[in-house]
Amino acid sequence: MLSGVSFPFPDHDWFIEQVRREQAGLRVFVRSLGMRAEAVDDVAQEAFVVAFEKLQTFERDTNFGAWVRTIARFLVGKELRREDRRQRVLAEHVAEILAGDEVPVPDDAAAKAEALKRCLAELPERGRRLVQQRYF
After folding, report:
1. Domain presence at residue 1
2. In whole angstroms, what is the distance from residue 36 CA to residue 43 CA?
3. Binning pLDDT at 50, 70 and 90, where does residue 82 land?
4. What pLDDT was estimated at residue 132?
5. How far apart, in Å, are the Cα atoms of 124 and each of 32, 98, 112, 119, 133?
6. Domain contains 84
7. 74 phi, psi to nearest 5 deg
């Protein structure tokens, strides 16, 4: 995953080994925090990138897995807040449309409604009732 990259950290093999050891567990951890399945790999990868960028602050005699999971927890929180904001903006936009004086109606909606009424009128009574019960 990180081969061919030059590291300022003297023991780059150690970091690569930590990534290999922790990557599967980190993905499970990220998913368990409520991250969408399609975003898990991106968040896990970003956690390793941040860990690499902050590697000089890591105390080598401590638990690397716990450290990178802490980084991932902050990243998941940030991403979930971002998604929540997007959903709120979308919901507000929909509410504005629904609360408006006029709901936008396509120009041909009236013509389609009239054609539907004509079609319903041509159906036998039983068929018309079934359609009305199902769709109206």
Report:
1. no
2. 10
3. confident
4. 75
5. 55, 36, 21, 10, 14
6. yes
7. -65, -40
